[in-house]
Design goal:
43% of the residues lie in helices and 24% in strands. With 516 residues, the chain is α+β, with helices and mostly antiparallel strands. It has two domains: 27-221, no CATH class; 262-515, TIM Barrel (Alpha-Beta Barrel), CATH 3.20.20.450. Helix 7 runs parallel beside helix 8. The longest helix has 60 residues, at 11-70. It is rod-shaped.
């Protein structure tokens, strides 16, 4: 299958495509879950801050109302005002103590009665609120002081941290934190007072300022890992997302691995260099020496394995892909065989099957020249074997091509002679150097007299025309001896060697060379 100009059916591309199909929905899904989770945390934090601010303003409303109710007691002696103060403190929600302040300081406390304390009125936000680390009764017990001035005096009430802790805790979301800020002081939901560099949450934060009181509420999330928290609350969704993405990726892997059209498969295989040269030896009938080889194409499919040429060559010719396939095969053989040319006897025959459509392409001249340039002059005899599956027209173009090939030293052979209707016509129209007797006749030697007569006639015809004779499909000694006795020049078949990959063929030549 071809996608965007590359072969997506190759294992590496299939794996990459499947991985991308898996990663893409997983990434998008996790990003969406992560974003939604952060939005949820942000909404929870905003809601917590709003709720805490409402509760704090409610407490301060009661504290201010209590202060206003105390105004008539200002400048009265503590002894006469104390009972009323205590009664009102008991009835006022959230207020722990109240104090009456005159010009000379705090003179009456609802809990201790008559006192003489310094009035430290510095540090109050807007002269109204201040977080204190403690009081005379509980020095390390933070309180929120609410100061209301009236004339030449003031009333100071305190809200215990336990009330503030309760309000902040009730407002805080799960895994979140809510803090009260007054001036430069902070009080968290655990009742801890922080003055400098407070440790504040940094995730999904909201800072709400009161429009009525000089305070703000800071809310946020304190999570060591957002992804771990997301897994805890969305693990089922994440597992479903991973399962879905994996299923889609496996489906894509399977779809890309399915065979496409034959034409598409052939083009894919050509780009992947899956067409390999196999060489079958050509031996001299006189002494049995290997003097050449026919190059046969094999398809090494990544999943099917090795495919015979009769299963794909006809389709390649119909699709018009046979020309680039042959061109690629010639390039491969030239590059690999040239590394072994020291072992090759002079004039070593290398034969390629050429289709009729290839003979209509002038590039064949350049391809043959490029092939021969890989070898020393005279080191290789290049033979082009013409098949009869397609009719070759003897027009000026074809004749000019064959003339150029002949001048270059390239030989022409008629393959499978005697099985098609074009063989005799080729002999009449073209300058041919070799006749290759088809293996269907060779296989009947010694068993059928008619086939022997056909072989004898072909041999006689070739001899009269001065052509070199090659017998294909020789499998027995009887066949070899018969052909040798009839004067056939070269023999080819399983008796002398099966087609083998080029490196293996050359290693066999090396072994024979050492044995000699």
């Amino acid at each position: 299958m071809l996608l965007f100009g590359f072969d997506a059916s190759r294992p590496c591309w299939r794996l990459l495509c499947a991985a991308l199909i898996f990663v893409l929905p997983v990434s998008l899904g996790l990003w969406e879950l992560h974003t939604n989770y952060l939005n949820t945390l942000s909404k929870q934090s905003e809601s917590a801050a709003s709720r805490a601010l409402t509760l704090m303003e409610l407490m301060l409303d009661h504290a201010e109302e209590n202060n206003r109710n105390m105004f008539p007691l200002l400048n009265h002696p503590c002894e006469t005002a104390l009972f009323t103060m205590r009664r009102r403190v008991v009835l006022a929600p959230f207020v722990r103590t109240s104090n009456l302040i005159a010009d000379n300081g705090v003179y009456c406390n609802s809990l201790l009665g008559k006192v003489n304390w310094l009035d430290d009125n510095v540090g109050y936000s807007d002269g109204l609120l201040r977080l204190l680390p403690g009081n005379f009764v509980l020095p390390r017990h933070p309180v929120l002081a609410v100061r209301s001035s009236a004339g030449h005096g003031a009333v100071l009430s305190t809200i215990d941290r336990e009330y503030i802790k309760l309000m902040l805790t009730l407002s805080a979301p799960a895994k979140g934190e809510v803090l009260l800020n007054v001036g430069n002081s902070w009080l968290n939901h655990q009742g801890e007072l922080m003055v400098r560099d407070p440790k504040l949450p940094t995730l999904a934060t909201h800072d709400l300022k009161s429009s009525r009181y000089p305070l703000s509420i800071y809310a946020g999330m304190d999570l060591p890992s957002v992804w771990r928290a997301l897994w805890q609350v969305r693990h089922l969704t994440i597992m479903l997302l991973l399962g879905f993405s994996l299923s889609i990726a496996l489906l894509v892997w399977w779809l890309l691995g399915r065979p496409g059209s034959m034409e598409g498969e052939l083009k894919r295989a050509l780009r992947a260099k899956e067409f390999l040269p196999y060489l079958q030896p050509l031996v001299s009938s006189g002494d049995g020496r290997v003097v050449g080889a026919e190059v046969l194409m094999r398809w090494q499919h990544p999943t099917t394995g090795l495919i015979r040429p009769d299963l794909f060559i006809p389709q390649a010719e119909e699709c018009g892909i046979i020309v680039p396939m042959t061109r690629s095969l010639m390039q491969t053989v030239a590059e690999q065989l040239s590394q072994w040319q020291q072992l090759l006897p002079a004039g070593f025959h290398i034969g390629f099957n050429i289709s009729a459509v290839h003979c209509r392409d002038l590039s064949l001249l350049a391809e043959c020249r490029a092939f021969l340039d890989h070898f020393a002059p005279g080191g290789i005899t290049l033979v082009l074997e013409l098949t009869e599956r397609e009719l070759l027209v003897a027009d000026s173009h074809t004749l000019g091509l064959f003339k150029g090939l002949d001048e270059m030293g390239v030989k022409l052979a008629i393959d499978d002679f005697g099985t098609g209707h074009s063989s005799l016509r080729y002999l009449q129209q073209f300058h041919v150097d070799y006749l290759k007797i088809d293996q269907s006749f060779i296989g009947r030697i010694g068993t059928e007299s008619l086939s022997e007569h056909i072989v004898d006639n072909v041999i006689d015809l070739g001899t009269r025309l001065g052509l070199t004779l090659v017998a294909e499909g020789v499998e027995t000694r009887v066949q070899a001896d018969y052909l040798r006795g009839k004067g056939v020049d070269y023999l080819q078949g399983y008796l002398f060697g099966r087609p083998a990959p080029l490196p293996q063929f050359c290693e066999g030549l090396l072994s024979r060379h050492r044995a000699a």
